[in-house]
Amino acid sequence: MSKSAEIICVGTELLLGDIVDTNSQHLSRGLAEIGINLFHRETVGDNHDRLVCVLKRAISENDIVITSGGLGATCDDITKEGVAEAMGLKLVLHEPSLERIKEHYRRRDAVMTENNVKQAYLPEGAIVFDNDYGTAPITAVQKDGKTVIMLPGVPRELVPMFDEKIKPWLKEQYSDAIIVSRNLRLYGIGEAAAEDLLRDLMDSYQNPTIAPYAKTGEVLLRLTAKGQSEKECNALIDSLFEKVEERVGQYIYGIDVGSLEEAMSRVCREKGLTVSFAESCTGGMCAKRVIDLPGASKVIGMSVVTYHGSAKQKLLGVKSETIEKYGLISHECAKEMAVGLLSLSEADIAVSVTGVAGPDTDEGKAIGTVYIGVASKRGVRSSFINLARGKREREYIRTLAANAAINEARLEALLLNQ
Q1: Dihedral angle computed from the Cα positions of residues 264, 269, 273 and 275, in that order, rounded to the nearest 10 degrees
Q2: Taking the model in full, what pTM does it have?
Q3: Are the beta carbons of 219 and 191 closer than 8 angstroms?
Q4: Most buried one in 41, 137, 205, 386, CB count within 10 A?
Q5: What is the DSSP code (8-state) at residue 17?
Q6: To the nearest 10°, the Cα dihedral for 325, 328, 329, 334?
Q7: Are 4 and 36 contacting, i.e. CB atoms less than 8 angstroms apart?
Q8: Using CA atoms, how far apart are residues 415 and 3, in angstroms rounded to an integer?
Q9: 212: phi then psi, degrees, rounded to nearest 5
Q10: How far apart are CA 408 and CA 417, in angstroms?
Q11: What is the pLDDT of residues 165-209, one digit of tens each?
């Protein structure tokens, strides 16, 4: 039978919003991968009584409780004290941990203050995992069939320690199954529409399952299976994937990829193609997203931000007659921008973006009016997208416009060299 777990993050700074909790996300994914059910996550401040109350409730309701934070040397680091009280245990000095802490300071030729000794006091009977990334010992405390694991709050310590030591230990001790997920990325369809096409499959399948998630301008479909082996899970997912692909295959742009730019870059690298962007309303967002990925130099060699009309004319060769007749925000301007960029950059694919991000209208065009041009050896084309639905913020419109431009580059790359 699968075990249940709860994550408790300790720290007033989390409640105040001074620090973003990324630890819970990493722990949640890791637990799912080894088939341990996570039903609840909670954040509690640096208050002993409240922490003990939360711990007692979590321990009573779950097989495993994982805490994050509160293992430092200062007086507001109270996690060990809270766990010891909640489990009815004493804190005792763990000499090997104390020696590791002393050695940590000796190697750095630094002075160890007396309060650092506090980190070596652990609940009696605790299983200790040496922390290779910091001074706070990582411990697992077991009593009456319950397990509490205490991890540091610093992500650079928590992430590798959980992946390298805690997750394998949990899998060996408690996991009777594994969970495998396949992430399908969809563009050009909303979450509600995707769910409508898949509703009967979502209702009829229990293992594997389908879960849609709305992202910014796209949809993530997660197919998840639980089984005794990765092979068994993949076989279950394969059978469901065929049915999903029949319904929404035309919208799937990638499987287990992180973003549109990753999918686009992958196609370009596979085909040896390069892309350039000429951006107006997106202000370099398209190029940045591609350049943020490793290996970007093989994909993008030149891009330009041509915000003002004169820049479009001088750099890209957009004709003054075109601007006078059709405006800067038009099919004609977008196409001339793309053609000019193709010549300037000598890339295989040139994509242009021109539009109105707001907060004011421009050339009599509504906020959210965007035109995208694409040029390659196949020719030149343009498309119009209307992002003016509802009261959308400027940054959101720019992001959606960048999504559309990057997707056009992806589609063009797929068609080239065929």
Answers
A1: 40
A2: 0.78
A3: yes
A4: 137
A5: T
A6: 100
A7: yes
A8: 49
A9: -90, 140
A10: 16
A11: 999 999 999 877 888 999 999 999 999 999 999 999 999 999 999
